[in-house]
Amino acid sequence: MTDGLILSNVTAGYGPTYVLDRVNLSLLPGDRLAVIGRNGAGKTTLLSTIMGLAKLHNGSIQLHGKPIQALSPHQRSSLGLGLVPQTRDIFRSLTVEENLLAVKRGTATLDEAYSMFPRLKERRKNGGGQLSGGEQQMLSIARTLMTGPEILLLDEPLEGLAPVICEQLMQVFENIASDGRRSVVFVEQHATAALRFADRAILMANGAIVHEGPAADLLARPDLLNRHIGVALST
Ligand SMILES: Nc1ncnc2c1ncn2[C@@H]1O[C@H](COP(=O)(O)OP(=O)(O)OP(=O)(O)O)[C@@H](O)[C@H]1O
Prior knowledge:
This protein is an alpha/beta fold and 235 residues long. The chain has helices spanning 43-51, 73-78, 96-103, 110-116, 118-122, 133-145, 163-178, 191-197, 215-220, 222-229, and strands spanning 5-13, 20-27, 32-37, 55-63, 66-67, 81-84, 151-155, 183-188, 200-205, 208-214. Adenosine-5'-triphosphate binds at residues 14, 17, 19, 37, 39-45, 189. Residues 5-231 form the ABC transporter domain.
């Protein structure tokens, strides 16, 4: 049996639309992958296709040696795929604690979620809609962790958040990845934080992977980012 996630020659989009163009990608347990590209390059569509939220036109997706492309998003989630969407989907009318319990699966516990995000423990009786943007993102991440993912897909998790919150979240991602059992896919338009976190990176343009290599190489050679996708590194 092959461990991990393998996308082979994946072409996908929405309805009749094609966005991803023959994408090949493999992710082993413990991998930290940065996905970098400009607006509209297809990064979200890549994550949506893995989760079963976009339409696969061609190619195959395997998890631990078994095809998953016929499975629903819910079934994929129960097999260990977890998406933190860019839209931070939380239940605004439920409390923090109710949000977490609504999706709890397996051995995941509230204590674990609260030890990762002490701020959520303080706010546990508050409604999701009463939280700040940073707290909502913490809740969105904690909710996904409550489903017990082996593969965590983060879609622009730092977008629009204050630097101090970004630093806290990066520490959480380090903790999540540090035991080497889970893999993390980190999609970012602003590349520096993702590249510092990741071991490996792919660069996307027009729905295709135009470069793949060690994240450290891209940090050391920002001209490569510029050459492949016309993006500059920010600090
Ligand atoms: N639900 C949808 N229906 C049709 N087309 C879509 C849909 N979502 C995205 N697209 C199109 O797919 C292409 C890729 O979008 P995608 O959101 O995957 O890019 P992205 O790299 O994640 O960009 P961003 O940084 O803006 O999120 C774009 O042309 C976009 O307009």
